[in-house]
């Protein structure tokens, strides 16, 4: 015998998936971000491209240029300079 007509299974509803917010990072360094960069980086114990992107809301290529500028001015010093990952720390002492 066939099962009762009213006992049909519900049709599966597929989820839309997780929606990630698109990051709106700056591609140019404006005056306020520049001042914040030079003031705040002196207190960071770890300075990498990722930390600057996360904290300053700038994109990666701009973060690389900022790190090069900070190193040139003696605000940060390199700890590890591998081609894939450059790690810096604040420069303390005789500068």
Automatic annotation (TrEMBL):
Key words, A-Z: Ribonucleoprotein, Ribosomal protein
Bias (Basic residues): 8-17
Region span, Disordered: 1-21
A Gene Ontology term for the protein's cellular component: ribonucleoprotein complex
InterPro entries per UniProt: Ribosomal_eS25
Similarity comment: Belongs to the eukaryotic ribosomal protein eS25 family.
Name of the molecule in the record: 40S ribosomal protein S25
């Amino acid at each position: 015998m066939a099962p009762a007509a009213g006992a049909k299974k519900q049709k599966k509803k597929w989820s839309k998936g997780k929606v990630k917010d698109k990051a709106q990072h700056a591609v140019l360094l404006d005056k306020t971000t520049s001042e914040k960069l030079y003031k705040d980086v002196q207190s960071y114990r770890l300075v990498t491209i990722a930390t600057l992107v996360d904290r300053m809301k700038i994109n990666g290529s701009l973060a690389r240029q900022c790190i090069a500028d900070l190193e040139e001015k003696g605000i940060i010093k390199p700890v590890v300079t591998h081609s894939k990952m450059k790690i810096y720390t604040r420069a303390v002492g005789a500068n």
